Amino acid sequence: MSLKKDILWRVAIVYLGVFLLGLIVLGKILYLQFVEKQKWEERIYNTTIRNVKLPANRGDIYSSDKKLLASSIPYYEIRMDMRCPGLSDKEFYANVDSLAICLSGIFKDKPREYYKKNLIQARKRGNRFYLVKQRVNYIQLKQLKTFPIFRLGRYNGGFIYIQEYKRIKPNGNLASRTVGYTTESPGGNVVGIEGAYEPYLAGTEGIRLEQRLSGNVWMPVNERNEIEPRDGKSVITTIDVTLQDVAEQALLKQLSNHKAHHGSVVLMEVKTGEIKAIANLTDTFGRYMEFYNYAVGESTEPGSTFKLPALIALLEDTRVDIQDSVDTGNGIIYYYDKRIRDDSYEKGGYGKISLQDVFELSSNVGMAKVITDAYKDRPHHFIDRLYSMNLNEKLELEIKGEGIPEIKYPGDNYWSGVSLAMMSHGYEVRLTPLQILAFYNAVANNGKLVKPRFVKELQYRGKTVKRFPAEVINPSICSRSTLEKAKIMLEGVVEKGTASNLKNPNFKIAGKTGTTQIYNKKYGYKTGTQVSYQASFVGYFPADKPKYSCIVVINSPSQDVYYGNRVAGPVFLEIANKVYSIDIEMQQSRDNKNLVADLPYSKNGDKTELKEVLNELGIKINDKASGSDWVVTNKADKEINFEPRAIRKNLVPDVTLMGAKDALYLLENAGLKVEIKGRGSVRSQSIAPGTRVNKGQKIVLEMSFM
Fold first, then answer.
1. What Å distances lie between residue 698 and 91, 649, 685, 686, CA to CA?
2. Contact between residue 328 and residue 350 where contact means Cβ atoms under 8 Å apart
3. Cα-flanking dihedrals φ and ψ of residue 220, to 5°?
4. 20 to 30 A from 533, CA-CA: which of 111, 136, 150, 247?
5. Most confidently modeled of 167-171, 211-215, 479-483, 616-620?
6. Which CATH architecture has domain 242-588?
7. Interacting residues of 282 by C-beta distance below 8 A, sequence separation 6+
């Protein structure tokens, strides 16, 4: 081959290679352009543009009397686009000093020089999403919109704000465990009403389109969201804030008096099953707080409060009558190696008494004898009867964490020859306080077992969208005749039995005391020589026309007093008395002509307003404060005394025992800045009365309920 042909051949190969390479590149371009176009567009889009889910405004939770129990407060993150097209250097540098002064003035956290320096540096860097401030409230946001540069808006002033929410409980610890909370982490907790009604409260998420800027900062693309979030529904609970406060304070006082570990109280409306108050307090380093919902979740041996279902079973299954005689002997009886005794054994026991007396005096021996004698050859009949009254079933509450009731069956593990005797007075069974209350409530409700409920309805923007009616679990737990006998015995407990200390002249109470040794899986019923007790009282009022049922359970009182009537009973009585004093319907249902009700507690304060209220209630006033606008009130037997309280100009007034409204009025008029801690009436003030006023000085008021 000649040199020329060799060169041409080589050139042809090179040209062919270049041509083929060109075809490959062209083919790849066409493939990317038409075949994989969508794939690469999505990849580019996803690296520079993203859809961000926007949480909806969570629905509020209200009490039955429309007081706020939980709400989401809006907060804002303030940012600034230093490269927005409408903001010129001339405009920025002419007003940045004024903006810095305004920012320093509103937030009061940094000097104006700090804000000015950082704003200028951000401008020079060309920050598109410069963070100015986090957790700004709505009032501050409105002010920020009027500031220099910011007032020009987003596209001319670079002003950007992003809304977020914080969940608050305006009433603090009040029913906080029942109101509950949710956590956002994977596998997080859902507690109380917040958790149970999460799908309704959460609302529907919105979507916002964001663009990635340099520095991996994401900024909203549009002023408006792509899809606006839809607010959650509000939940109207059955809780009455006034009754909740009464129940919580009564429980707190008794827990403190007896230095108990924890306790719970539940107040329920008989007909509807609505929970009007529920408090659960635990001793945490000397302070009682709500950390666990014992009423819902703690399943324990109930003790003598279980004697009611045991006797109802007996009356239903046998021909025994409450007037039949039972020989309780000297107050001690043995079943195999198990000793059962009455509290009267040291005095020789009760001897022969009626079955009604067995219940009213809470004789363990009497209960063990009648239940064992009736069912020893057919123990399954006793358990079947208890099961027929739904005592072995959960109430299926909407709130999570309900304790499991335990009532074993003959042949199960741990069933023994002493099981009937022990179960007769509330051992070898386990129930929660709310499960016990539901049963007693059924007796008060003429045999109808209703499900306890915490929520009445759902609302959206003030309009009801769903109601939750009363739910009947069992229309009749027993016969009418047995029910009437049960009511007689329950009234007898208070009239002449173990809870006679709860008897009062205004209305009748029906109920049952309970005192139980607490079982520990590791140590049994004793830790060394120490025995821990659980004291309880459960019942309803008024006994002749029941409107409310209530249970009080106090765990591990440590002041050597542990009986249900002495520890739990006073809490029940205090709640019942206060409910009676504010429930006009209960008072009108009785002939009160010969009754003298306790005069209500009256705060100190404005005389005109106090007079108006007391006159409306028909309460006599002994006015010893003529010429004085502000008074101190003192309760006498049949009247409220008014004593003058002097308010002197330029001196700090005495606002102790006043309500927040009156105290705030007087102190702010005196030129003081007021901080209020707690609720109720003023317990103490940080600046002593009579001190000369320094205008603008801060005064802290500690209220009676912290």
1. 41, 18, 11, 9
2. yes
3. -55, 140
4. 247
5. 479-483
6. 3-Layer(aba) Sandwich (3.40)
7. 261, 262, 288, 289, 290, 291, 292
- Token pair belonging to 646: 């002097």
CA 182/CA 167 separation, integer angstroms: 10
DSSP β-ladder status, 217-220 and 234-237: unpaired
Q: Using CB atoms within 10 A of its CB, is residue 83 exposed (0-12), middle (13-18) or buried (19+)?
A: middle
CATH of 52-237, one of 3.90.1310.10, 3.40.1190.20, 3.40.190.10, 3.30.420.10: 3.90.1310.10
Beta strands 181-182 and 190-191, pairing class: antiparallel
Amino acid at 213: L
> DSSP secondary structure string, 474-509?
ES-SS-HHHHHHHHHHHHHHHHHSTTGGG--SS---
Helix (H) or strand (E) holding 422, with range, is: helix 419-424
Name, in order, each residue with C-beta under 8 angstroms of 478's C-beta and a sequence gap of 6 or more: 312, 315, 316, 389, 447, 486
Strand stretches in 385-471, DSSP E = 406-407, 429-430, 449-450, 455-460, 463-467
Beta strands 206-213 and 49-54, pairing class: antiparallel
- Helix (H), strand (E) at residue 80: strand 68-80
- Domain 605-705 class, CATH top level: alpha beta
Whole-prediction pTM: 0.72
- Give the C-alpha distances (Å, rounded to integers) separating 659 from 281, 603, 646, 663, 680: 26, 7, 17, 6, 6
Name the residue among 165, 271, 201, 240 with its Cα closest to residue 465.
Answer: 201
Q: What is the pLDDT of residues 347-374, one digit of tens each?
A: 899 999 999 999 999 999 999 999 999 9
194 CB-side CA count, 13 A: 23
Cα–Cα distance, 292 to 273 (Å, whole number): 22
Environment class of 13 (CB within 10 Å of its CB; exposed 0-12, middle 13-18, buried 19+):
exposed
Q: Indicate the helix (H) or strand (E) that contains 73.
A: strand 68-80
For 208, the 3-state DSSP assignment is strand
For the chain, counts of helices (H) and of strands (E): 23, 33
Pairwise CA distance, residues 52 & 542, whole Å: 57
Q: Are 340 and 366 in contact (CB under 8 A)?
A: no
Query: Is the CB of residue 55 less than 8 Å from the CB of residue 205?
Result: yes
The domain ranges of the chain are 52-237, 242-588, 605-705
Distance in angstroms (rounded) separating the CA atoms of residues 427 and 227: 59
Q: Give the pLDDT of residue 536.
A: 95
pLDDT band at 592 (very low <50, low <70, confident <90, very high): very low
Length of the chain: 706
Report pLDDT for 312.
97
